[in-house]
Amino acid sequence: MISTVTTTVTTVATLAAGATLGALATILLIILLSTKEVVTADTRRIFTFFGKSLDIAILPLLITFTLIVTFKIIEVLA
Amino acid sequence: MSLRRELKVFILYTILIAAAETVTSFYDAGCGLFLHSVLLVSLLTLSALWHGANPASSLFLSLALAPLTRILSLALPLIYFPRYAWYLVAGVPVLAATATVMRVQGIGLRDAGITFRKPLTQTWTALTGVPFGIIEYFILKPEPLATNLPFGNIILLAAALIFSTGFVEELVFRGVLQGSAVKALGEKAGVIGAAAVFALLHIGWLSMLDVIFVFSIGLFYGFITLKTGSIIGVSLSHGITNVLLFLVMPSTP
Hints:
Strand content of chain B: under 5%
Number of strands of chain B: 0
Helix content of chain A: over 70%
Oligomer: heterodimer
Strand content of chain A: 5-15%
Shape of chain A: elongated
Number of helices of chain A: 2
Structural class of chain A: mainly alpha
Order of helices and strands of chain A: EEHH
Helix content of chain B: over 70%
Strand order of the largest sheet of chain A: 1-2
Shape of chain B: globular
Distance between the termini of chain A: 28 Å
Largest sheet of chain B: none
Number of strands of chain A: 2
Number of domains of chain A: 1
Radius of gyration of chain A: 16 Å
Structural class of chain B: mainly alpha
């Protein structure tokens, strides 16, 4: 079960559910990074634009991934 | 491609976003995140396919911010942060995504409404946040965000709410999405479309009355942004609404 606080803030009830969602977002990030690698190999305008567009999702997902990894490391060390 | 077809595609994506939000809120957050991911990739692809040939390319690139916002809000490890820090933590990646949309499309700060025009209108618009916050409190009756915080921390929390829920969300929905929608679909459809997407992302509150109320506020904010060319007043109003909704009203006996 999720609870929405505002448009940008939604929380899940359990740590396990949060971990699953974090894993799904990480898979999405990997897919987007792989796609960017493939499309930027082509210099046609449509692919150049698509490569730039992918940054819209890649950048915030990288921030999210960094936070997830940081807290996992802290959790393991603690 | 005719305007009619672009509008149909926009309506189709709006319905799909509503479906993904419904799945996220009522069925399973994981399935919802998957559906939002499919929508995100689909919107980015459509935007690239229409790039250079159709002005709606920018609209669908901007619309990608809606599923992306939900993906980020679900995936961020907010549970590790104190509740009062959630808004800033959630606001940073959304702001990064919005800044990237603006860079890719060549949208300047003024184009996105980050400019102070018509100060009198901006001031009274900001003050509308007071009645909006009180009305929404009686619709949702949320728990207080924080209790027994020192006064200084409450001020910081209010500032964080105004920045991350007021400014960031208005930049996404009115500054970028509505701006692109008005260019691609016209003023009327653009304002209604952006307000509809904004309202649909409130399905998670499980209150139809709130979705309708937020849609009405979205129309009002959209109209003000269209007429003044600035998001400053609506950002302050949105922020004040949330300060009253989450901080002031729940703590009032």
